[in-house]
## 1
Amino acid sequence: MSTRRPVAASLAVLGYLVMIGPLVFVVVTAFTAGSTVRFPPDGFSLRWFGAAVGYEPFVTALVSSLELAVLAACGSLLLGVPVALAIHRGRIPGKGLLEGLFLSPLIVPELVVGLALYQQFMVGLGMNNFTTLVVGHTVLMFPYAVRVTGASLALVDPSVEDAARGLGASPVRTFWTITLPLLRPGLFSAALLSFVTSFNNVPLSLLLQSRDFRTLPVTMLDYVQQSYDPIVASTSVLILAGTVLVAVLAERTVGFAKIFGGINR
Amino acid sequence: MRTRRLTALLLLPGLVLLLAGFLVPAALMLLSPPGTGTADVFARLGQMLTDPYDLTIIGRTLGIGLTVTVVCVVLGFPVAYLLARSTSRWAGVLLAVAIFPLLLSNVVRTFGWLVVLGSQGAVGQALVALGIVDEAPQLLYTPLAIVLGLVQLFLPLAIVSSYSALAQVDARLDEAARGLGAGRARTFWTIVVPLSWPGVVVAATLVFAGSITAYTTPYLLGGSRQRMLSTQLFQYSSSTLDWAAASATALIMTVLVFGVAALSSALGRKARIA
């Protein structure tokens, strides 16, 4: 980087230090041979990785998190893609307002959405927590599906679809054979973004948890409050590794900065 | 006529989800929490806005939110500026490193500060080893810890928003200003900052709204000593089961976020006109 901009460069270095520094310490601590989270760590071992993989509550919670993230990503796409199609291809009045309405779950604090669902569905209607979680996560991921597939739909030339219609294809057939294949990168981006966001969610998953079904981040939060051994550090390193894999997958397919930063380079 | 019916059919499932899974429960939460009514929620809201304990929490939330916003813009804008103007091939890698934390669990990111700031943590042990203090100071459960945690959380967002704005500013304008004899600092303040101002406004809004509603960070790094609105809301809804208070807190949080969003869109509009 440029050394001719000393002020900007030192602020930037400080920024990276705050973003990445703590993660370095987590990684180092995870390999400790001792039994407390401390720095510098006592020796080197892989024992806490063994402990993390063998700790039943974390494994169960991981399965729950994955299950929920897949359901929410699929649900939000199934409902969101038709909405994106209607907004970008339909002839309807008040498109801007409608789009704003569909993006509204993004503006309201997640904790408030969680409280509303907890109060009204679980306490009020006695719904079970798994169903409520699926509904809640789908609602939260829904705006991503509408926005990301919408952006990708805006890049598809409508005249291609008109040509198919003009050649006698029904609207449904046009969608399956023309629009959907062209939308594939957008669908993939939206699915990946929803999956990651749902997997990492805390506010909603925390308020809607039950003893039978809780997600990994919520289980980890609970564990940290009770004991201070390095199992959370090793679990964090495993999550970090998984997240790096997702990032690499994103980079190899659609482009990492494009999906997660919304940056078109 | 057929296409209009088709459009309605496409919108319907999404509308049902939005109404049943979000808008109606949110409205009911504010108007009629279980066992109480609208009057209770607003009575509790009135109490909160006069009670010193609740006002401390609201004040702390706003203070921390503002601090985090300022720090994120001050650190994030230079990162975005250097990355957007760099021709080095490392710029792409550094941008990826800045975006990557957005994908990573908040619990994992915040846990890092427990390792750094905890009583057995790196900072405390370093201070003892250097002989600056005899006993490692308690750095956790302080406003400083929450600010550090939230800056780490939201800095990537500030960088991404600023970068998007800066990437649209033609770098040749910088060169033109320099060619006409402006110094680096003057070019930065009279060309770069005004042209990317809308991006800075967006960044600040996202960071502030995120900071005043985040849960994981104030919970882990602030504990019960440094309550914020979010941790207080969880307390009301899970431990004390005070629905009126929980709804009133949710109302305060929502109004704050909407207020900031409105302010930001007004500022953004002003920037476009000017």
Note: Chain A touches chain B through 93 residues (CB under 8 Å).
## 2
Amino acid sequence: MQIIISNNSKEPIYEQIYAQIKTHILKGELQVGQPLPSMRQLAKDLDISVITTKRAYEELEKNGFIYSIVGKGSFVSEQNNEMIKERKMQVIEEQLTAAIQNSKEIGVSRTELIELLTMLYREEE
Amino acid sequence: MENVIELQNVNKSFKGFQLKDFSMTVKKGFVTGFIGGNGVGKSTTIKLIMNLLQPDSGTISIFGLNYKQHEKKIKQRIGFVFDDNIFYEHLTLTEMKRIIKRAYSNWDDNLFRYYVEQFELPLNKKIKTFSKGMMMKASLTIALSHHAELIVMDEPTSGLDPVFRREFLDVLHRLMENEDKTIFFSTHVTTDLDSIADYIIFIDKGQHVFTKESTQIEEEYAIVKGEKELLDADTKKEFISIRKSNHGFEALTANKNRIEEVFGQMVLIEKPSIEDIMFYTKKGAEWHV
């Protein structure tokens, strides 16, 4: 697993680790059930503090990318398609709500909005 | 989380110096860096932790034990690295080891040999011929050879060349693979902390300024640079302290997100070093008196 850290980036180091491991998982480079290096091992390998890797792993776990077993370590979770779909649906809902609010502000009617959406949807196809 | 070192409301006065109502904790399994300028109480605190000084008031407990009843038990579990030479100069390292090993029930000759080899230390040369770096390596070797759970170091990297500093940090990184080890060290070479410290305790003028996780520092603090026209009575409040020049200002904030909201693209936001935080926090404290 390749992880490259920039010490000069404005982005905190734990976020850099989080983002890179997440990408490895989503691309399927890390397989379901595959163990991740221990937090302490990774901290040593990357020359960073233990609390930084701990923080990155906590975020990964919170967002369902990995799971941890006490005394055994951390593993890649099964990427639940339902869960991903649900999360996306939530984002879509929020974005549509914003679109509706913007429409109301400038007096675009529901029909007009639906027309616009239908048109944009077709364009994407 | 378990505390390995705990100081509660500790007071200690000397002529012209006072440690005031000082409280701090060091967590098991992590590296805690202890920062502050010269003469602000770092060494005094370390001496109190090592029971080389006793507090006027307040409590100190190490591994949950107090020194009055458990001094021997506590000392067995600590490896201590001083910045001064604590060895007999006319002896060799082998001779010195023979004296020291008797004091520790967990002394491990194999471990001693391992570090001697790793640090390329001469066993049969008199210690007075050692360079500053070698002395440090010898001191560290002794501290690590009895399976200490807590390593306490006073300014371990001061006066070391950059190559050995890296080697030294590497040794610490390797040690921390074991989650039962705890490291506490004072330093004013703040770049040491960037790579290894999990927690940072900042002391100034005998008083505790803050204890923070290093990730928390990364998230909250930022150096902000921009044009002086952006500063007014309201925006100034967002900063801990500000340095102005003819060409603009540079300031430290402890609320990075807020700055991004307030100033957006109008300022440059950078990651601060621990040195920046020390410098601006000290300045800020001086302003507000």
Note: DSSP finds five helices and two strands in chain A.
